[in-house]
Amino acid sequence: MPNIHLRVNSLATEHPDNAQNSDKMPTFDTIFSHLSAIPSQNTHQIVALLPSCDAKWPAALLAELLTQAGSKQHLQKPHLQKQHLHLHLFAQHQASWLKALAESETLASPAKEQIKAICDARVSGCHRLKLAEARLIIDIHLGDPLTQLKALVPPNSPNHTIQGWLADTDVVDEALIWQMARLSQDNADLLLLESSDVNLDKASDNANTNLLTKLIIKAGFTCYRLNLSAKDDQHVTLVEKPSIASLDIAMDERRALRRQQLDKFAFNPLTQGNEGEIAIIGGGVASANLALSLAERGRQVSFFCMDKAPGEQASGNKQGAIYPLLTPEHGSLSHYFLQGYLFSRQRINQLVEAGHEIPHDFCGVLQTGHDERSHKRLAKIINAQPWADSIARPVDAPQASALANLTIEHQGIYYPLAGWVSPQAFTRAAINQAEQLGMQTSHYQCRVTAIRFENQQWYLSTVQDGQDQDGQEVKFGPFANLVLANGRHLTDFAQTAHLPISGFRGQVSHIPARAPLKDLKTVLCAHGYLTPAHDRLHCTGASYVKDASNLDYSAVEQVENLDKIRTSYGDDWTKAVDITGHSARVGVRMVTRDHAPMMGCAPDFEAISAAYVDHQQTKKRAKESAKYWQTTPAPVHQGLFILGGLGSRGLTSGPLAAEILAAQLCGELLPATQDILTLLNPNRMWIRKLIKGKAL
Question: Which residue ranges run through the membrane (predicted)?
Fold first, then answer.
């Protein structure tokens, strides 16, 4: 196949005198714009690519697309301001085209760095890449394509289903076609990329291709042929359209497939947000990233923060470690944190690229044990899975010492892509970027004291603080949707008081940078953590006190933080850890029992309790009761959503949870598989009990 240079007109239209492509080269518009589901004037295109592992064309198409999208001059062109392109790429881990793209010399950071990180990490599932102020979104679905397709939940809004597919003929089969159809618009098209040994015009020459065409038509797609080496007016040719009768049958089959999955997923409602303004209560990493994700979608947001500025509560630490949470079995929790880890790195890099100042350093994180039990657990984690070297690798004591630039007497795990970031700066940068996009109204020193749902709308009762309006009561609303992302105040309202989530006080100590401690080159994690110096200070801690009565400075916890470092690392350099300045910061992080965040519809506990009375599990009706809780839509508060429970790793888990929730609010195809959505479901604790027949 020739090395085709593909230019994407929807994001890269140039004047004729600036065009670098030959007239014979097909552009993205040439391939897709005339198809039934993607008219050329459409400002929002959703396209999926399913290449073979050794295909050459995806790297060429995507390299040009990403290069154009990263051009600042290009982004300033008025005709591009409202154009959006969303690509879904399905790739095996060993796909040579993905590796070629990651190594492309034409790509610039941060896109190149993120794609390389995704490629090297070899983590299955959906990885989202956002470029050109989110006018270009690329979802890379890594792993077996059929497995990935089956795990995706169809979007609530037909406008966000996939409009067209481009696939290599040698990777498509009947099972894949029906899963592709389940996620597609009713009038979606499927383009088969013609390979050198296939001729779709002569079915007698290739019976398999003829059968494939029939399967495509049976699933309700219009089938096209794409020949990249043809003349410019013959790149795309129609093979066959389904008849009206066969199309009706196909649509029935598609709806049945969607119902079948959603019926099994009823315990986790993924209700779309209502049209209209969205209110967010919060002020930390999660709420700020949600505001940014919604602003990128052009949604109108009112942001309510109880403090003078964002990042004053749990997200107010000077430095916070950012690294994945791995488990030996590498289940949904571990998978989610790896995906969130890569997404958070992308968010930070992109905000810095946009001109926001965010102190950070992806200098790596070195995790070692502090007692026999922790040493055994770390050994179990690193030996249980074939982790990619870019994700986690074992190190012995000499290697650990070289990485840290201090003497480390233990073996451990090194996370090369990890590091530290200023949570407060990250939070404020996300809010500033959201406000720059022009769709956000921010209210500071505004404490929300009550929320109420009336006439299908949400209203807020607040108390305004500040010199001119201290204690003044103000009402806000109506809002079509309300998101509670307010950290330790998440359970302050009647609607959320019963959420199974707990607050843990954490005191982080500030240590002056003195020799030899100032030479530390990587974040250390053991019984506590210790960061490299920033602004002549290190951060260490943190304490972990459940349901603390106050947030005052604690001399006892300051000493405990010192003890954690000195018992974790026995070398003389620990003597330089000086807490006598009594400098520290206290915050509260909300923690769930399973360590996963809460993201999604707010459960209606009163309605669940009422249903529990009628559907308690007994020996006689155990199967009947379990089936009820598995298949009956769980009660939720209409238009009310939860984003919280980030625990001590909110920098890793929060931004991706916010992006998923923004996609849910807007009715999109979510960048998460079904098992991840189940993991994040705010209702999960109660549903697990009810299915097992345990009391609420």
Answer: none
What's the rounded Cα separation, in Å, for the pair 468 and 451?
A: 24
Closest C-alpha to 603, from 673, 675, 676, 689: 689
Residues 6+ apart with CB under 8 A from 98: 58, 59, 89, 91, 115, 119, 140
Q: Compute CA 614 distance to the chain's CA centroid, rounded to the nearest angstrom.
A: 38
Across 133-152, average pLDDT: 95
Q: What is the pLDDT of residue 227?
A: 83
Burial of 42 per CB tally in 10 Å (0-12, 13-18, 19+) = middle
State percent of the chain over pLDDT 90: 70
Q: Which of 279-283, 535-539, 569-573, 653-657 has the lowest mean pLDDT?
A: 569-573
**pLDDT at residue 673 greater than cutoff 80:** yes
Rg (CA), the chain: 26
pLDDT digits (tens, 9 = 90+) for 87-100: 999 999 999 999 99
Q: Please say if the pLDDT value at position 563 is more than 50.
A: yes
Taking phi over 0 as left and psi of -120 to 50 as alpha, with beta for the rest, 466 belongs to left
DSSP structure string for 448-480: EEEEEEETTEEEEEEEE-STTTTTEEEEEEEES
> Which one, of 240, 230, 253, lies nearest residue 209 by Cα?
240
Q: List phi, psi (to 5°) of 40.
A: -60, -25
Q: Coil, helix or strand for 395?
A: strand
Task: State whether residue 126 is helix, strand or coil.
Answer: strand
What was the pLDDT predicted at 482?
A: 98
Alpha helix segments (H runs only) across 296-393: 332-353, 372-384
Domain spanning 9-264: which CATH class is it, in words?
A: alpha beta
Nearest to 490 by CA among 604, 597, 643, 594: 643
pLDDT digits (tens, 9 = 90+) for 331-344: 999 999 999 999 99
b/e for 288-315, b at 16 or more Cβ within 10 A? bbbbbbbbbbebebbbbbbbeebbbbbb
Segment 616-630 shows an average pLDDT of 78
Asked if residue 350 lies in contact with residue 114, where contact means CB atoms within 8 angstroms, the answer is no
Q: How do the domains of the chain map onto residue ranges?
A: 9-264
Q: Name the 3-class secondary structure at 442.
A: strand
Residue 504, judged by CB atoms within 10 A of its CB (0-12, 13-18, 19+), counts as buried
Question: Rounded to a whole number, what is the distance in angstroms from the first to the last CA of the chain?
Answer: 62
Q: What does the pLDDT read at residue 82?
A: 61
Mean predicted confidence (pLDDT) in 369-378 = 94
Closest C-alpha to 134, from 372, 297, 358: 297
**pLDDT single digits (tens) 414-453:** 999 999 999 999 999 999 999 999 789 999 999 999 999 9
The predicted model gives 348-356 an average pLDDT of 94
Q: Cα–Cα distance between 696 and 687 in angstroms, integer? A: 9
What whole-number distance in Å separates Cα of residue 191 and Cα of residue 173? 14
> Mean pLDDT across the stretch 382-393?
96
Partners of 523 in beta bridges = 365
State the Cα angle at 412 between 410 and 415, rounded to 5°.
140
- Contact residues for 37 (Cβ-Cβ < 8 A; gap 6+): 163, 164, 185, 187, 188, 189
pLDDT band at 263 (very low <50, low <70, confident <90, very high): confident
Q: What angle do CA 645, 646, 652 make, to 5 degrees?
A: 160
Strand duo 502-512 + 457-464: pairing: unpaired
What are the DSSP calls for 181-198, one per residue?
HHTEEEEEEEEEEPPTT-
Residue 579 corresponds to which tokens in the numbers above?
Answer: 């807490």
Exposed (0-12), middle (13-18) or buried (19+): which is 150, by Cβ within 10 Å? Answer: middle
Token pair 């492309």 in the structure block, residue:
104
Query: What single letter denotes the amino acid at residue 505?
Result: R
